[in-house]
Structure formats: structure tokens, C-alpha cells
Amino acid sequence: MKKKVLLFLVLAAITGLVGFTGLSFSGIEVIRVMFLIFADLLVVSLMAKLFFPDKPKVKYQPVKRGG
């Protein structure tokens, strides 16, 4: 989900432009609902990227074995 941020941004922008620019046809409500879904997925993806980064910030150190 974190890797799909750009996809959700583009889809939300396209459906937002089509849905809220004053066009009127029979499926406009479906496009507006799709905009809300894509906008929500975009927010969830951004939050996931913020709270769960890809690389851990912990540096692992090798364990010295006695011998």
C-alpha cells in the first residue's frame, strides 16, 4: 500500500477533475464516490509511509563470540 501513493494521487486528481468540474451525465455520482475512495486511500497510504518507514532506523551490531 505504501508504494501506491503516486497511483492514488493521480487517480484522485483525475476523478476529482471529472467529477467536480460541472459535467453532468448519468454516471457522475459513481465518479464522485470513486474520488472519495481514492482520496481516502491516498491519505491512508501517506499515513502508512509516515508511520512505517521502509528501512528500520536501528543499526545492528555484530555479536562477538568468545573463543
H and E order: HH
Q: CA-to-CA gap between the ends?
A: 46 Å
Strand content: under 5%
Percent helix: 55-70%
**Largest β-sheet summary:** none
Any overview of this molecule?
- The protein has 67 residues and is mostly helical.
- 58% of the residues lie in helices and 0% in strands.
- The chain has helices at residues 5-19, 28-51.
Gist?
The protein is 58% helix and 0% strand. With 67 residues, the protein is an all-alpha fold.
Topology:
Blueprint: H1 5-19, H2 28-51
Helix pairs in contact: 1-2
Task: Considering the chains and any ligands shown, give keywords for the structure.
67 residues; mainly alpha; 2 helices; 58% helix; 0% strand
